[in-house]
Structure formats: C-alpha cells, structure tokens
Amino acid sequence: MAESVGTLILVLCGCGSVAQMELSGFAKAQFLSVNIAFGFAVTAGSYVSAGVSGAHLNPAVSLAMFILRKITWRLLLVYCLAQFIGALFGAGFVYLVYFDALYVYGGGNWTVYGPQATAGIFASYPSEHLGAINGIVDQIIATATLMICILAIIDRDNNSVPRGLQPIVVGIVVLLVGLSMGFNCGYPINPARDLAPRIFTAVAGWGSEVFR
User: Any transmembrane segments, and where (predicted)?
Assistant: First the structure.
C-alpha cells in the first residue's frame, strides 16, 4: 500500500506539472518547473512511504535492492505491482483533474503525435531526432546515474545522508537527471511511471498508438 500511495503522489504531481505546461501552451509552466516538480514529487512520495516500505517508488530501485539481496524476489514482485498500480491511479487522477482542459486543447480528440498531442503528458515519447539505439543508451545512462546516486545516498559506509533527509537528496538527484538528460525523451528512468500511464492512455482513448 505504501509503495502504491507514494508512486501515486509521484505520478500525480509530476505528470500534473507536465499537463499544466502543455495545456497552457507553456504559459503556466516551463521545462525547468516540470523538472523541479518531478524532483519534489519524488521527495513527497518518498516521505509518504519511506517509513513503511523504504520508498522505492521505481521498479529499477526495487530490482537493485533485490540484486543486492536487501529484498526477496517475492517482495520484488509485490513492490513492482504496487508501484504499477499507484502509477495507474496517479495517471487517472491527472486525467480527471485536467479532463476539461484536455478536451478543449485537443478539440475533443485524444492524440499521440502532432500539434495538439496530449499523450506526452502521461508518458515519455522520443524527440524526432532520436534513433532507437541512442534512445536505449540514453535510458541506460540516465537510469544508471540515478541508481548510483541512490545507492551512494543510502550507503551507511559511505558519507551517508541522514535517513530523514534522504528523500530530499534523492529528489535533487532526479532534478539533476532531468535537467541534464531530459532533452531526448524526457528521461523515462522509472518503468512504472512510464508504462502504467501509457497503458492508461491506451484504454482512456488514445489507443494503441501510444505503444508505437
């Protein structure tokens, strides 16, 4: 439950900031503010769930914890499922909050590509210049950067960050990754945060094009 609620907060606040930027035509938000929002969203979601589950909020983090033998494979599956469910509900809440704005902006159409595209509010899509190989490299490096920093932050044998401050520092790391590696495809470093909202949009009216 804690992982679900924490991930819900992450997606609701993070994707909500993207919605505010896109639907206002960049009048109410900018690229910087979206990255700041995602950083704070991770921090807020972490504070919500850290005391119960450790605040993974990301299957990549849970997988790393499993590889390091900090959680069992059963708990890995439970965490990933909980994160997926939380992200799904988070996307649904963004949809409800901005339904009228989405309808007006898209002229009553839910589109994935084009000048009135709105699917990018919920999931990451590659820029026109980005090829498949470069996209894979981009995501590997960005996710690896996140994981290296998180492992350093929680390592008690390192210059350990006090437990109560760890969510803030992790949020700063997410902000850093976004500001430095967000241009190509919006730094999809969290599989649950991207896949669950993508599935939601496929069902909610954007169709199978969200997977192309």
Answer: 36-55, 76-98, 132-153, 165-183
